[in-house]
Each structure stands twice: as C-alpha cells, then as structure tokens.
Design goal:
It is a single chain. This protein is 1% helix and 44% strand. The protein contains 1 helix and 29 strands. It has one helix spanning 218-221; strands spanning 17-18, 21-23, 34-37, 48-51, 66-71, 77-82, 86-91, 96-102, 110-113, 116-119, 122-124, 131-134, 141-147, 150-155, 159-164, 170-174, 183-190, 196-203, 207-212, 223-226, 229-231, 239-241, 244-249, 256-260, 265-269, 274-278, 286-291, 297-302, 320-325. It has a 5-stranded antiparallel beta sheet, with no helix packed on it. A 4-stranded antiparallel beta sheet has the order 5-6-7-8, with no helix packed on it. It has a 4-stranded antiparallel beta sheet with strand order 9-10-11-12, with no helix packed on it. It is globular. It is found in: Cytoplasm, Cytoskeleton, Spindle pole; Nucleus.
Length: 337
C-alpha cells in the first residue's frame, strides 16, 4: 500500500505504466525537486514524498517551494527545507508540522543524522529553537549529501568541502573541483565495508566526477565521464549538452543512476566504468530520482527544471513520477568504458 495516490501494489493489474514503469497518480503541479522513500522500518507501507511543490504536505506548512525532504530514522517524521527560509518537521502520527530551523536565505538541503538533523551547514536539535552549531561556508550551498559520518557540500564558484560529523562536526578537507562548470548534484558512495569513502558530483555540463576521499592511486581512481549528451559523437560535430539533475547510488550493488535535463535516466557501474543502461527520452527533463531501501524500486520524476528560464515554463504540461523495477538492471558488469 502507498499513500498520496500511488497505485496500490507495484506492477499489479490496473496500474498505469510507461513501458514497464508504473506511474504514480496525482503528482504535484509544480516542478518536482526531490524524491525520498521511507526507511525500511515502516513495515506496513512505504511513503513516497515529493518536494518542490508543497501540495502533498499539510496545508500552509510552507509559504514557498520545498527544495528538499528527508526522513527520521524511525520513519515517523519528515523534515522539509523551503525557499521560505525555514525547515519544518512533520509528525506523521499527529499530522502536525512545526518549525525547527530558520536561515537567512532559502534552504537548499536537509538531512537527518542519528539524533540531530543538519540543514545546509547549521546543526539543529529538534527540541530547541536555536542551532546547536553553525559552520561558515565560503559561498552559497548548491547541493549537499550526508552519509554519517561524512558530509559533502558543493557551493557556488565550484567549491567542494568535506565535513566529518563524529563528535564535534568540523571541516575535514577542501577539494579542488574536478569539474569545470557549475555543480548541480552530489551523492556519497560507500565501500564494501559499508563506510562512506567518496562521492559522485554532477554538473550543468553533462559530466560526472567520481572522487574518492583517500584513494590509493588518485590519478587512476578519481575520474570524470560524460553523460546526458546527444547528437555529436566527436569534436567536429557539436553536441547537445544537458545538466545532470540528480545522482543516486544503489543501496546494495553500489552502482548509480543519473538523471538529466535531456529527459533520460542512465545506470552506471563506476567500478567497471561501464554504462549499464540509458532510457528512452521523455518530452521534458527528469529532475529527481531515488532508490528504495533494498534497491528493488527506482523512482524518478519528470518536470520542468527551469534551465531555460520562466518563459519556457508551461503550467499546462503534466508532471510525472514513475516507479521502475530495478532489481536486475543495476547489477554490476565487467565490461569497461
């Protein structure tokens, strides 16, 4: 069973599909900026929540678009980050929302870490109205990811900062960006011992960087690759280049998915440096994606990403959210790029 109008039962009779992908009914009217599955502790159902439009949240929870969402570890609460400069906690049991954070500008990212949550680079105890700690960043935060005890923040001017969160959270390292253009998304990956060991970084230039924090051979282990491009295949023919809007790692295999402004998703094996699959093209960008806890379901959202400005926004164009059976397609391969 699912909430918010998703069809009941993945792949069951009567589901609406695009190919083999199940369409979630009644998506938000506004652009979809993020997707998040509930933790596996929710045994009765998984809730899929969409950020950017606040249509699916309690009425008047925010006065501006919701840019990011995350879950508490027990699945009982949802945390939201908004352009109205606030972060709020939605208690699903009581269906009540309360403000837990206030910033001087729109809040781009929010993450739950054990007993406290972090939005941008202010740390909050949800029992207190004041931040428990603030870490100054050199520029505006464009994207961030947290896998305890590591946090990675990508800022304006191609800044990259790694933070360690154990004991007293602090800056661990600043990294020269391996990408030449504006950062759009970042996702931390783990090693075989299930510890965070590096991150994938996507840019507006249709390129992803794989970067290990402490690689044995930096020149070999860290690399970039092109993606979400079309038409031209060599330097003599111009290419259409699209932004990488989101990156998500498979929780079991460690392979990854990227989605882009070209309206496609692609699956990759970073260790074998292999492309596993590229989807058919949708008629508008794919703006967000995520995997459920065991990696069997891949969720992705199609909506306008504002890359061409407000004049290209068509309020009559429908947004979509699809669920795809990803159990086999994300398995690692041996072939190299």
């Amino acid at each position: 069973m699912s909430l918010f109008g998703a069809t009941s039962g993945f792949g069951s009779s009567g589901d609406r599909c695009l190919g083999n992908d199940v369409e979630v009914t009644s998506p938000p009217d506004d652009s979809i900026s993020c997707l998040a599955f509930s933790p596996p502790l929710h045994l009765c159902f998984q809730i899929l929540i969409m950020g950017s439009s606040f249509t699916l949240l309690p009425k008047q929870m925010h006065t501006g678009p919701v840019l990011d969402v995350c879950w508490s570890d027990d699945g009982s609460k949802v945390f939201t980050a908004s352009c109205d400069k606030t972060a709020k906690m939605w208690d699903l049991n009581s269906n009540q929302a309360m403000q837990i954070a206030q910033h001087e500008g729109p809040i781009k990212a929010i993450h739950w870490i054990k007993d406290f949550s972090v939005s941008s680079l202010q740390f909050w105890d949800t029992r207190s109205p004041n931040p428990m700690m603030s870490l100054q960043m050199p520029e505006r935060c464009y994207c961030a990811d947290v896998v305890y005890p590591m946090a990675v923040v990508a800022t304006a001017e191609r800044g990259l900062i790694v933070y360690q969160l154990e004991n007293q959270p602090s800056e661990f390292r600043r990294i020269d960006s391996p990408l030449k253009h504006q950062h759009r998304c970042v996702a931390i990956f783990k090693d075989k011992q299930n510890k965070p060991t590096g991150f994938a970084l996507g840019s507006i230039e249709g390129r992803v960087a794989i970067h290990y924090i402490n690689p044995p051979n930096p020149a070999k282990d860290n690399f970039t690759f092109k993606c979400h491009r079309s038409n031209g295949t060599n330097t003599a023919t111009p290419q259409d280049i699209y932004a990488v809007n989101a990156i998500s790692f498979h929780p079991v295999h460690g392979t990854l998915a990227t989605v882009g402004s070209d309206g496609r998703f692609s699956f990759w094996d970073k260790d074998a440096r292999t492309k596993l699959k590229t989807s058919e093209q949708l008629d508008q960008p794919i703006t967000a994606c995520c995997f459920n806890s065991n990696g069997n379901i891949f969720a992705y959202a199609s909506s306008y990403d504002w890359s061409k400005g407000h004049e290209y926004y068509n309020p009559q164009k429908k947004n979509y959210i699809f669920l795809r059976n990803a159990a086999e397609e994300l398995k690692p391969r041996n072939k190299k790029w």
